[in-house]
Amino acid sequence: MTELKEICKVQCGFAFDSKKFTEDDSFSPLIRIRDVKRGFTQTYYTGEFSSEYIVHKGDLLVGMDGEFNIARWNSEDALLNQRVCRIIANSNVNEEYLRFYLKRALKLIESKTSFVTVKHLSAKELNGLKLNLPCMEDQQCISKQLSILELVIRKNKKVLELFDELVKARFVEMFGDPLINSCQLPVQPMTDICDIIDGDRGKNYPKSEEILDDGYCLFLNAKNVTQKGFDFENCNFITREKDDALRNGKLSRGDVVLTTRGTVGNLAFYSKNVPYDNIRINSGMVILRMNRSILNEIYFIELFKMKLSDIKEKIASGSAQPQLPISTMNKIILMIPPLELQNQFASFVKEIDKSRSRIQKSLEASQELFDSLMQEYFG
Asked: Residue 150 and residue 144: Cα distance in Å, rounded?
């Protein structure tokens, strides 16, 4: 086993004077922790500096607080600020091999590091990391395999993003900009076209000890309703007896779930493809049950997503968590184009979803293989 300090230099950033930070891009760019992952900065430095702290495009950087991200700098020359370090590999080390090793090692450290507010990584910890260092030929072979998989994963994610953009573009083509109703379509308040159903928050609401890892009825938690719809990776359940004791908040096929507290505005459609027959919402959600003679659920979901920035301005901010109360939802005004047009749009989205599903499966397979190889090579 070889210690990291034996095969590379870990250069810590300089404690530049924050009083000399500016947003004026006529000065020298400066890399802060948040910039490591995204690859660019919006902070600039007005003071003097030593050239030894200048980072160049392609340099390998590590964020020493929070998520311990490692990434290549992807922008113009910039200054290496404190709590960011640069990894400079020796000539007998393939830097991509080192990047993949550190990517895994840092995640393991992050998962084991206790914290109150922000996790911290020390240069001593970094220098003391140990790894197996094969010959240069093997390093190059391993890093090439992982780089190809990383590229496939990145491209699949980009395709999924483009599908989202395609759906938005089709929506605007058919119905105009929903924020200004540019096509001057008929409008109605949300309360007139769908029932907004709250969950049961009374004495029968499940206690923590009544939440199970398996059971009769899926009891949704905040992680189950995401920006991309339902995610059933981490599920909670209640018994049939508890389900029977609750009055409101049970889903029917065709319903839409909307998160209304904390992370506000996530939507999920309870279609026939969802693999659970019994689902209830928790206290941070509502059920939207459409009047299907007026509104198509798929059209509504895309409309609501596009209006979300406008809707968030109405969110209650006086409490500890953002909230979207039913009284506010009742006043939201929605465009109501002819149902035939809504159905045409929904058919288009369903076709896109078929392609999206294929790409998602490819992404998951590529990610699984990548994770497996990272485990094989780096433990």
From this structure: 10
- Whether residues 313 and 253 share a domain: the answer is yes
Give CA–CA dist 138/143, Å, rounded.
Answer: 8
Residue range of the domain that includes 324: 186-336
Per residue in 320-370, pLDDT (tens digit) is: 678 888 988 888 999 999 999 999 999 999 999 999 999 999 999 999 999
Pinpoint the alpha helices (H) of the chain: 33-38, 95-112, 123-127, 136-175, 190-193, 240-245, 297-312, 326-329, 339-378
| 264/311 Cα distance (integer angstroms) | 10
Strands of 8-12's sheet, edge to edge? 8-12, 84-89, 60-63, 70-72
Q: How far apart are CA 332 and CA 351, in angstroms?
A: 29
Number of domains in the chain: 3
pLDDT in tens, 82-114: 999 999 999 999 999 999 999 999 988 888 766
